[in-house]
Amino acid sequence: MVNTRAIQFMGLNAVRVLSIISLLLVFASTILVIVTNVKAVNAFEASKTGDPAEMDCDYIEGSTVPNQPAGVFWAIVSSLLIMFQTIILLFSEVSWPMKFFDRFFPVLGTQFGLGALGIFQALISTQILSHHVDDFTLVAAFFLFALACINMLLGLIFRESAKEKRSIRAWRAEAKGVLPTSVDQRPQFVGSQSYVNSVFSQGDNKGMWTEKVPVTIVRNDSTATWSSTDKAGFGFGRQGEKAAGLRGFILQRPEESLPRYASPSPAPTSGNGHHVAFAAQPTTTHVSLSRAASSVTSTSSFYSPNPEEEEQIERERAARYARRERRHRDESYSRESSRSRSERSETPIKSSRPAAF
């Protein structure tokens, strides 16, 4: 089975190597053009005293320098710019320094494909081919233009993923991908050294797993291990109260809560089923709200430090409860009275006289 990823990697890197070679050839040919132009200009300046017809020409003979004011300057500047561009493209092809390109020249960075590179190569090659040059420079420029067309085509096919597919580092990282990449991030819980020593010492002396050994493991601040002891807590009894008192905690007993309204006593009824209303006040039921004396000693956490204040609170609570009871009885009595009056008014009065015929 053909590995498509390997074919893409080798094909893109082959084009990459040819592109680097073409840029090096163009760089060398540009240096040769500069040397040739300088020699031609020197020869032209030396022969100015000759035939005027030879002096009146568009280009200096044997060079790419135009015969005009500052023609030599612009010809040299053009060659230097071509050399500078080839150096930048060479650094882009060798992927160094990519952080510089990603920040200051993004079209040659990792986020763009090979299309921009092909366009720059085409501009350089057409600039060289637009002049009359020697055979070496001509071949180098044609070679660079061919690679420019290939890079533009690859940029259209692979787009921004072309540089990633030809990257050697990405290829090596993918080759290592056969190994498991996931790592268990859960914490590793290991028994403390005291537990291990106690188990193995008991196993050597009396036989391992032959009897139940009480294990006492203390939390170690340097590790994340926890365990319990033979007495995990003291509960809610006397032992827990003592332990809390020794540690400085005070256990307070919650205050007693009373019902907001007491259930009213049923009103007496007569023989015919009607409620009977009495003018006398109903019997008052006395409710004892005092709390039995606690059997806890003064050292207990339930001990009240101010008995007089507690007694005053109990009296106020009893008074409030008595007022609520009295108000509730009055309301109940008024409702029963109004109900009995309405029932008496609706009952028809029978006459003791015989009916007249």
TrEMBL record:
List the InterPro entries: DUF7598
Q: Which segments show compositional bias classed as Basic and acidic residues?
A: 328-347
Q: Name one Pfam family in it.
A: DUF7598
> Where does the sequence pass through the membrane?
12-35, 72-92, 104-124, 136-158
* Keyword vocabulary terms for this entry: Membrane, Transmembrane, Transmembrane helix
List each copy of the DUF7598 domain by range: 72-131
Residue ranges of region Disordered? 289-357
Q: Where is the composition biased (Low complexity)?
A: 289-301
How is this protein named in the record?
A: DUF7598 domain-containing protein
